Amino acid sequence: MQVHQFQVSYVAEQDRLLVRMNSTAGDEQGLWLTRRLMLDLFPHLDKAVHELSLSDPQTVGHDGAAEGAVRAHQQAETLGQSDFQTPYQEASPDAGGPLLVTAAHYQLLNKHEMSLRFDEACQGQTETRTVEIHMVSETALALLHVLRLGLQASGWGISGAHPQDTPLALPGQGAMEADTSDWDAFALAERPKYLN
After folding, report:
1. Residue 32's beta-bridge partner residues?
2. What is the 3-state secondary structure (H, E, C) of 67-125?
3. Is-contact 24 2, C-beta < 8 A?
4. Is the model's pLDDT at 104 over the cut of 70?
């Protein structure tokens, strides 16, 4: 499935996350994600997404010492450019309804792409239902962000689900260390604002 949009919401009555994805072809697939599954999946998914390189990398400092900081900044800028305002467009849902995900698998395809496969294998079911999605790094980063927001709403306390637990923050967020020197003045300066 080639994902066009996705939406993550916490459904308190069922104590599960509902992920809805639509494709450019107008199909929709839903996934129910339980706390048990996310306890195992989210830390691994977080690590895998942060290993991906953005499609349009910027140059790193000549000594390479700031590579991690540059990567975090690039990811934050990519999130800042992502469209989280456009409402989710309803599509034709899968006839079988959302998958109750019992297993998830991810694979880094190359430096810029990953594949995620979700399986539903429940007792009494004769066949395993599966959905596989391919994403470029920017889409994977946006998915991780909305999953993090869903996890925060759930109150499950999953490590890495809170921004303070992860080095990635949206532009303008994040804490600086209290002990700074004159060399840090540039890092503390207010970022320029662009109107376009």
Report:
1. 18, 100
2. HHHHHHHHHHHHHHHCCCCCCCCCCEECCCCCEECCEEEEEECCCCEEEEEEEECCCCC
3. yes
4. yes
CB 106 within 8 A of CB 114: yes
Q: Closest Cα partner for 92 from 32, 28, 3, 7?
A: 28
Mean pLDDT along residues 85-99: 73
Share of the chain above pLDDT 70, in %: 61
Beta bridge partners, 195, equal none
Q: Tokens for 117?
A: 């496969």
Q: Looking at residue 64, what is its pLDDT?
A: 57
Chain mean pLDDT for the chain? 75
In the structure encoding, which two tokens stand for residue 95, read together?
A: 């006839």
Cβ count near 9 (within 10 Å):
16
Report the C-alpha gap between 116 and 2 in whole angstroms. Answer: 11
pTM of the model: 0.69
- For residues 128-162, one letter each, b for 16 or more C-beta atoms within 10 angstroms of the residue's C-beta and e for the rest, the string is ebebebebebbbbbbbbbbbbbbbeebebebebbe
- Contact call for residues 33 and 101 (beta carbons, < 8 A): yes
Which tokens sit at 67? 């590579």
